[in-house]
From TrEMBL:
Belongs to the transferase hexapeptide repeat family. This is Maltose O-acetyltransferase. It comes from Methylobacterium cerastii. CDD domains: LbH_MAT_GAT (cd03357). Residues 6-60 form the Maltose/galactoside acetyltransferase domain. The keyword Zinc does not apply. PROSITE patterns: HEXAPEP_TRANSFERASES. Keywords: Acyltransferase, Repeat, Transferase.
Amino acid sequence: MPKSEKQKMIAGELYRAGDLELQADAAANKAWLVRYNAALAASPAERRVLLMEHFGGVGAGVVVRPPFHCDYGYNITLGADVFLNFGCIVLDVVAVTIGDGTQVGPGVQILTADHPRDAETRRSGLEFGRPIAIGANVWIGGAALILPGVTVGDDAVIGAGAVVTRDVPAGATVVGNPARVVATR
């Protein structure tokens, strides 16, 4: 039996984002985002309930400060005590996993969505995603960009405004555009 466009998307294969099932998921996500982003004055416990109803996994003590934006929500898994500051964007067409104790600064973008490099394929409307895995106890400075397919090791530091185009080793500090290692633990 052929895979649905949603199954292809989650598997990181070429898919069509205009598919009716994916459009329905996106519409449901938009409605959830309206509710979540209106909950800025709500208690952390009330916001946690909202996160748990929509994300793939939410550890104890998670804080995601509104406004927050994502594509679907169900592909996001946050470990215990993860903190996402104001204005984070997570394009979660495939899995985004953030480990325990990781702190994410304001305006950070975590982008799994990607597009074919071949112009003809891209013109056809096909796209794909590459998962992002961020380890435990990582600190990501404000306005950093984490690009598709990147893995960030435990205890790493990503400087503010860095554009992370490749994997970051555990314990490393990266800065710049493109991000480069400037220190290791």
